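Lecture 7 notes: from sequence to structure.

We start with a single chain of 191 residues. Read the sequence below before looking at the structure.
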Amino acid sequence: GNIPLHYSKDMQTAAYLLRSASSDHMRQTLITKRNNNGETPLHTACENGHEDVLEYLLLKIQLDKNQFILAVNNAGNPPLHLAKSTTAAKMLLDIQNKNKQNVLHTASFTQDEVELLVYLMTQISQNNSNSDHLLTPDKDGNTPLLLSISHDKDNFAKTMLESCNTDTIRKLLMHRNHAHQNAFHIASQQL
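Now the structure, written as tokens:
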């Protein structure tokens, strides 16, 4: 079932509940606890439109935030699918992990569902930041496209390229990572 954090309607309540936990480990356990529907408090904050709770929880997650943003509930929906506002969606899209990877980077090599990528691309397009998220390099200089190619996620690469304008496609294909490899180099290594 739900824990009290799933029901938090404001940041003060969420903060009180997390402060009452006896340790950092317990706080992380509360933030990532799933209910009977497989939803974490991030899911319920998004689903109920509680942006301040979402923002607070994102600040308090000490683990890889992208893994929690991509965590699906029993219906197969990550928190982003449940976001009720563009503000909440943008908060989730803008998070970067310790490798400077946004949710597109992470999805491009950890997920098998092309529908999730299509949804992410749609959300990014609605937030007018399509090329920003696609062109953002991680700490190794890899864009989401380079990661999807290097992890044999051809459908992801195709979906990304199909959602872009010609100028962005050119930038994506010619972008070189810190190893001086572009999409063509990486694709030829996969053959």
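The CA atoms of residues 89 and 180 lie 33 Å apart. Keep this in mind for problem set 3.
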